[in-house]
# Entry
Amino acid sequence: MTSTVPASLTRTAEGAALQAVLLDMDGTLVDTEGFWWDVEKEVFAGLGHELDEAWRDVVVGGPMTRSAGYLIDVTGADIALDELTVLLNDGFEKRIVRGVPLMPGAGRLLAELSAAKIPTALVSASHRRIIDRVLDSVGHHHFALTVAGDEVTRTKPHPEPYLTAAAGFGADPWRCAVIEDTATGVAAAEAAGCRVVAVPSVAPIAPAAGRVVVGSLEEVDLPFLRRLITATG
# Structure
């Protein structure tokens, strides 16, 4: 976990209903879920295997070890998990060398959160090397704290990444709004006790108690996130 949070920031929102906003990366802020799938297909083609499109819904949003391990199992590819994760990360990094496309509404929302000085964290199952490269495009300054999948003991769908982010701000998870695009990420955030805005990218996500489903980040702004907390608080 990396953090640029000064001690004075961790309690700035203590008197407010919304204490922090925690955002997923791939498919939520940046339009990269398709990049990952393309890299996976390319790597496995090099190993002599064709990936079934039906497997995409299984691996989307998951930690690298789970997704890569699943693809090894279903294809029978002769490659070690550690070796495969290196190939996948290398392939993805090459894809984003010229930058990454933001999801609709992402840039405006990040600017709004920054202007309002809302403690904001990036919480991703991607590895640190990938997060830092993506943030070169998105803007490191938008996030006071970032949590990478290879920096926690248990990544999504376990709640540890979101609990780590909330603790980093000294925030109550129940007063944190999480924005996620996959069922895996939603499960992690809800298990941590956070309120969730789901913006499905690949597979549908159903509404539920404490969760709102929207079609795009263009529907989400700071008043929306504050209402998410107070409506069920």
Confidence is low (pLDDT under 50) at residues 4-15. Strands lie at 2-3, 20-23, 120-123, 145-147, 176-180, 195-198, 211-213.
